[in-house]
Design brief:
The chain is α+β, with helices and mostly antiparallel strands. The protein is 44% helix and 13% strand. The termini are far apart.
Amino acid sequence: MPPDLQATAAVRRRMQRTAREDNGFERAVRSLLHDRRLRYRIHYSIPGMMRTTCDIAFPGLKIAVFLDGCFWHGCAIHPPSVKKNRDFWLEKIERNRARDVRATAHLAELGWTALRFWEHEPVEVIAEAIISTVQGRRTELPGSRRSLQHVKRPSGELEAVDCDKAMVEAMASK
């Protein structure tokens, strides 16, 4: 590696310890969703995009959630503060941002809803936005899981299938 791209030992250790996935921010959001009994997939591969995943997905509802770190995705409120290898890091962050735009556009073409949140946003607000979107999508899509309130109850009368009704009633009375 060229000398200008080499990191100090301390920086290298810190970067190696940084969780790429399953970091505290992601776990906090997922925990709130799980507490509300939502079931989801994590690190879900985006259909048709190689090596690109979303952090949380509801595939049946076509909802993808991205939990973006301020440094890695170039947050406007918390711009990256880079002292060494500035050009390398700024180009890397710009590539990440371009990939984010491509992924969001690709998901929209497939009929998915892409939700993006920054790590500086309160996890409670993020979870409520996700829950609201999931609940809204469930009411929109036919055949998606709903509560049993709308299911008609059977009359209580036995139904004969592939046999005589009298035979079913005789078997039921035994």
